[in-house]
Amino acid sequence: MSDPIIKPTHEARKGDVVTPAKGKGWFYTDMVKEHFFSPKNFLEDEASYKQAYLGMVGSPACGDAMKVWLKIETIDGVERIKDFKWKTFGCASAIASTSMLSVMITEEGGMPVEDALKLRPQDIMERLGGLPARKVHCSVLGDKALRSAINDYFRKSGQHDRVEVEHGRLVDKVLKITDHDIEEAVLEGADTLEKLQEKIKVGTGDPSCIPDVEQLLRFYKEKHFGA
Ligand code: FES
């Protein structure tokens, strides 16, 4: 029997899935469990998989790591991702999210590179039927490794102008906190200024950055949780 999903209570965050038994906390959907127990496109033997573009990232939120290998072909003038393999030291949510991402990328003849760059972690979560809010950063790991592998493709195919590199912008100059630090904290559940300050102290030494912090808070909540 499949797990019933009920609407989050006021104690859960938007996009969160909750247990009917307790009405709060979190649990995994059947789709998440399916991809966790039978991961698709998982690469066991790296040495056997050659001539692929490699992306590698670590998560500052939890210290876990993800590797993604892509095979890209140009078919009728469209660069398509024909194969997506991956490996991670991440948790169940990272495994399920990346497994789902690999399916989304390779179905229907392979997703065009341009479309893959527009994918958001939210798109993966939708296909999974939701993830506990505290686990959203795990779905970001596969997405970032995908972008890193696409950059590897751009570099190796001489398309250096298409390489997209994330530069951290210093927001709190006293505590040296960047927009990336704020994004990680939001992914870890800091959805108010108070919680952000509790977690990373942003703005406590340099209150002049608070309006900027509040704007980034709104932006990252919208980006990752649609709220
Ligand atoms: S990937 Fe580290 S906790 Fe999920």
Automatic annotation (TrEMBL):
Residues 176-217 form the BFD-like [2Fe-2S]-binding domain. GO terms for biological process: iron-sulfur cluster assembly. Gene3D superfamilies: 3.90.1010.10, BFD-like [2Fe-2S]-binding domain. InterPro entries: BFD-like_2Fe2S-bd_dom (IPR007419), BFD-like_2Fe2S-bd_dom_sf (IPR041854), NIF_FeS_clus_asmbl_NifU_N (IPR002871). The keyword Iron-sulfur applies. GO terms for molecular function: iron ion binding; iron-sulfur cluster binding. Keywords: Iron, Iron-sulfur, Metal-binding. CDD domains: IscU_like. Residues 28-157 form the NIF system FeS cluster assembly NifU N-terminal domain. This is Iron-sulfur cluster assembly scaffold protein.
